[in-house]
User: Fold this.
Amino acid sequence: MTAHRRPTYPWQPIGDRQARVGLIGLGAMGRNHLRLLSGREDVRLVAISDPLPDVLEAAVATTDAKGYLEPQEMLAFADLDAVVIASPTTSHLVLGLAAVGRGVAMLIEKPLAATPDEAGHLVAASAETGVPIQVGHVERFNPAVLELGRLLGEGWLSAVYSIASRRAGPFPARIRDVGVTIDLATHDVDILSFVAGERPTRVSAETAQRVHEDHEDLLFGLLSFPSGSVGMLHVDWLTPAKRRTLTVVGEEGMFELDYLSQRLTFTRSTDTTNPRLIGGYAPTFEGESMDLPLASGEPLAAELDAFLAVVREGGRPVVNAEDGRWAVVVADALLRAARERRTVELEEVPAL
Assistant:
């Protein structure tokens, strides 16, 4: 066996050559990464790791990659420029630190880590070495979210009053190591902060455990932002149909977004002194609504585009390690608020 390749500090982008990429984990997200990475001409998928021999063998058979049952062995001996870590959340710290130790840029599927302390170790390692970490908050690359961000930047809402998100669906039996708050609510914590343009300063929450053996599977959370905007989270593994929606209410009107259909609508504020009647008896002040045009696309493919651009050219990942850490910090605070039945103040809130 060859000796470990030692990282070169500061980390350097690879330029225009084909990127040598590894993949750890062949669960639901890992298989999607496999599909996209193996179809890219600018990438050579050189190594894949998964602990299930049959799963690993099937993936290797469709690529030129070498298979590893142990991800640490892959990180130690495969010749990599970058790695996608799509393994269980509780493995992210050790694998992320191993990748940093090899000078390998990484895309870590969200959440960045299982706890704020573990996430902090990854942030520190990335900052110390210059090795980039992009966190897989894939909703940031949803065309509807990108358009919403653009329109907010153009001033369609001069003030954001409230942001409400719902992320609900059936229980995924594959998730055993963390509950719905760390696994899913981190998506929405990140999106609400992105929409608000700032990070929350205090949170409160209620949780419930109905079908999961070890962790909560329902969360209702409230986030308070410095500007006065209020965020609401509804996340669960109890709803029999998948729902992914976001509503942003502000001074000039309301945006409604559906992540799954990639649909974005805007309803203008209206004159509340002149209601119209629904069915002849129910008053409403509903304003004019419009569907906003979008170019549809696969968010995960766009996320990989952004990650590989960092691998080639350098620069800040769209969702970097600090962004990922903060999502875990807020999710942990939501759990603490529910557990202790109190509002939790967040200290040392970093700016976006």
